[in-house]
Design goal:
14 helices, 2 strands, 2 domains, mainly alpha, about 350 residues, Peroxidase, domain 1, Peroxidase, domain 2
Length: about 350
């Protein structure tokens, strides 16, 4: 396993930093949580069919099982090692968020309602503009899926996302597991479910998208704080500078513009830096600025800028809620990992 992870690291380390929810850059469709992996150097346009034959067979099989708790727990240790060797925290957070963030609370049927169901492993959804570059996240964790076949993709994506937050110094997320996978690409959600970065009315757009998921203003602001991780590259997302003093030396491939100085550390710097407007080398998207411009959002953004403990508490709750959106659990109540 160590050799396989090392091989993945050597291939993908240069492209392993991206941030959550993202749309690919286009004149009318830009990034919210920017995809700094929008076009990685390796396998730029590769579909999951480029994965090993064994992986394709496992991936495409009709999966109705629940995850095995012992394997989920063991996989968490392998994910921790992967993070240490690849600095892939941001893109793994993004992978989990994008699988869950298609949820529509107005649709009762599973899997039509979208959400955390593993559908992001299929080509049709990976090719959505918002998911540009996430093929590289899938390649990073596929060896772990192969090693632990009794884990659903839906659980693996969310396990990787939560573990990345915790390993970056963030709060422990109160996760539960047992998500069931969709069984085929025909069950993928339609494109257009994830947020943009530069809409004409940023605050209204954030509410439209996140309210559809069943999230509230506090949760919108708390989840936005995950921008403390990762970078945006203008040639990929349409946002940010080609390079700053904080990104010119990596880690990973140099370049891009980060929201925070220490962009692989999870803390409340995102809120502090936006509030203080202290450095032109730090990125502020229209949807970031809206957190301090909209009166209702500002209440929470100000609080998080002053109180990291409050941010961590609210973020952990919001992340856990996001990770369960639309999911079908087996057993129905799910299960947690005992530490």
């Amino acid at each position: 396993m160590a050799e396989r992870l090392a091989a993945s690291a050597a291939t993908l380390r240069a492209s392993a930093a991206a941030t959550p929810f993202a749309r690919r850059a286009a004149p009318a469709n830009r990034a919210f949580f920017s995809p700094s992996l929008a076009r990685a150097r390796v396998g730029l346009r590769a579909a999951p069919s480029s994965l090993p034959q064994k992986a394709r067979a496992v991936r495409c099989a009709a999966v109705a099982m629940a995850s095995d708790a012992a394997q989920v727990k063991a996989a968490r240790e392998d994910i921790r090692e992967l993070l240490r060797t690849t600095h892939s925290h941001p893109i793994l957070v993004r992978l989990g968020w994008h699988d869950a963030g298609t949820y529509d609370k107005n649709i009762e049927e599973w899997p039509q309602r979208g959400g955390a169901n593993g559908s992001l492993r299929f080509d049709v959804e990976l090719k959505h503009g918002a998911n540009a570059g996430l093929i590289n996240a899938l390649k990073l964790i596929q060896p772990i899926k192969d090693k632990y076949p009794s884990i659903t993709y839906a659980d693996l994506f969310q396990l990787a996302s939560a573990t990345a937050i915790e390993e970056a110094g963030g709060p422990k997320i109160p996760m539960k597991y047992g998500r069931v996978d969709v069984t085929g690409p025909e069950q993928c959600p339609p494109e257009g479910k994830l947020p943009d970065a530069g809409p004409s009315s940023p605050a209204d757009h954030l509410r439209e998208v996140f309210y559809r998921m069943g999230l509230n203003d506090k949760e919108i602001v708390a989840l936005s704080g995950a921008h403390t991780l990762g970078r945006s590259r203008p040639e990929r997302s349409g946002w940010g500078k080609p390079e700053t003093k904080y990104t010119k030396n990596g880690p990973g491939a140099p370049g891009g513009q980060s929201w925070t100085v220490e962009w692989l550390r999870f803390d409340n710097s995102y809120f502090k830096d936006i509030k203080e407007k202290r450095d032109q080398d730090l990125l502020v998207l229209p949807t970031d600025a809206a957190l301090f411009e909209d009166p209702k959002f500002k209440v929470y953004a100000e609080k998080y800028a002053e109180d990291q403990d409050a941010f961590f508490r609210d973020y952990a709750e919001a992340h856990a809620k996001l990770s369960e959106l639309g999911a079908k659990f087996q057993p129905p109540q799910g299960f947690s990992l005992d530490d």
